[in-house]
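Q: Structure tokens for this one, please.
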Amino acid sequence: MIIRAKAPLRLGLAGGGTDVSPYSDMYGGAILNATISMYAYATIEPRNDNKIVFKSIDRGETFEYLSTKFLDIDGNLDLLKGIYNRIVKDFTKEALSFELSTYVDAPPGSGLGSSSTLVVSIIGAFAEWLKLPLGEYDIAHLAFEIERKDLEMAGGKQDQYAATFGGFNFMEFFNNDKVIVNPLRIKTEIINELQFNILLYYTGTSRLSSKIIEAQVKNVDKKKEKSIEAMHKLKEQAVLMKEAILKSELDKIGEILDYGWQYKKQMAAGITNPIIDEIYETAIKSGATGGKISGAGGGGFMIFYCPKNTRYSVIEALQKFGGEFRRFQFTKYGLETWRV
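A: Here is the predicted structure, written as tokens:
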């Protein structure tokens, strides 16, 4: 028997960073995101030889352990170990024997939520294998707790919920880790036009998002007015983006993206750099009306909104930077699991 799962990566369209504590606890956060046709995959093959084998295919790493109730967190595929430890602790109470293989369509540090999406996919595979009674909110919250609390990895809450639910969602974040996911009903022709107008550009560099997020957290803790005001504006941006998409006011999308980008740069040091600024300005001069860096910043993917037929001139203008454009489609579905 083989158990498989896949969960989609996401584009954060507005409100990024307002899902990170302590800002979301103190003021409440709001984000609009959408899942795309790039995935994190997990495959579980049960074994009966009292061994646990982890294979990260895209990273080229394999680790083998004797079956035990707890695996030490030692820097080697800690995400996978953290999930296993929690599954045993909360559900099976007994050690398991299996091989877990993973693959992600985007590199770590890409800004598309790859780590959290992988966690969701792996939890989904375990839930399918062990028939765990977990709904969508349960899976997303468990993924959040494993990353942010068990493994103490810096970050927000949106990625786990985007990967689990899928589609276009307006998410609200409150104190005590409460999250409300509001799916948006968007006409097919609007989704098609957004898909045509949004360019997904990989800068060719990854970044360590935890450093930027830690700086953001410190700015809130120290009550730095400029940073907090920037986050307020980004929360406002999420509402503006939701209204523009639902009202089919697509001419406003680029302007709203640019509005958010100008404030995002004020949240913490390291979000942008001279190369990212040059790429952004080149895209704007070539016909894009707005854009942003995906995720915490510092590198990874960027998106640009290119109305009418300006996508072609923007693609041509950005060739000199050596990055690459990735084709994608927006997806309706979140986490999916099945057996072979």
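A few notes: Residues 225-246 form the longest helix (22 residues). The longest strand covers residues 29-46.
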